[in-house]
Amino acid sequence: MFISFEGPEGSGKSTQIDILARDLKKKGIDFICIREPGGTLLSEKIRDILKSNSYNDLTIQSELLLFLASRSQLVNKVIKPALKINKYVLCDRYIDSTLAYQGYGRNIPIESIKLLNSFATGGLEPDITFLLQLDVDTGFRRIKKRYEEKTGTFDRIEMEDKSFHQRVFDGYNKIASSNNRIITINANEDIDFITNKIQSEINKLV
Ligand code: TMP
Questions:
Q1: 36 Cβ closer than 6 Å to some ligand 1 atom
Q2: CA of 58 to the centre of ligand 1 (A)
Q3: Residue among 89, 11, 78 at smallest CA distance from 42
């Protein structure tokens, strides 16, 4: 089973992935947890470039192609081999992030992104996608708090203005409204509610 998690900044994807991973481990189910961009040596290097504030002159075309290069490596070297031996794959972001961020956020035509996503992945789509939907202000309050409590600063994409992040939020709603694979969950709900919802949706598939 291939499960992806999507959402705007601060939507709590990693918390839910950790909870699901613990649950799978308890049940003795073999799985891998990966994130995008990242998950292979090369993809993690690309992640550093994409997140770094040193590359503020990256064109939107280069940005898109770097996300896709990272994805192609991850799909072919990690995801497909894992699925082949029946492992669960839990992926923090995947093709819908590119539609939301580069498509709706950067205004690159959606149809071009769909084609490129399909080129990079060989058409591999998740079995189910959880969209943890969260308004921009709440999301940014959360990540600000996280950076104050631990270390870290806003990365290159988090630094984009509010209208960019609002387009990403609205874009996610549009993507989800036309795709049954995507289950939208209000990320303002409490953690247990979200965990139970995710669990019950997965149970429907197994
Ligand atoms: P994250 O791991 O903290 O979610 O960081 C990944 C960042 O990259 C986040 O700002 C969303 C962005 N992103 C895109 O813009 N396009 C993509 O295709 C992916 C996978 C992520």
A1: yes
A2: 15
A3: 78
Q: Quick check: 114 and 27 in contact, CB under 8 A?
A: no
Per-residue model confidence as pLDDT tens digits over 33-50: 999 999 999 999 999 999
Given the CA of residue 93, which atom of ligand 1 is nearest to it? 20
pLDDT single digits (tens) 171-185: 999 999 999 999 999
- 53-74 pLDDT, tens digit each: 999 999 999 999 999 999 999 9
Work out the burial of residue 122: count CB atoms within 10 Å of its CB; fewer than 13 is exposed, 13-18 middle, 19 or more buried.
Answer: exposed
Residue 85: what pLDDT? 98
With a CB cutoff of 8 Å and minimum separation 6, the contacts of 126 are: 2, 3, 4, 91, 94, 181
pTM: 0.98
Give the Å distance between the CA of 130 and the centre of ligand 1: 15
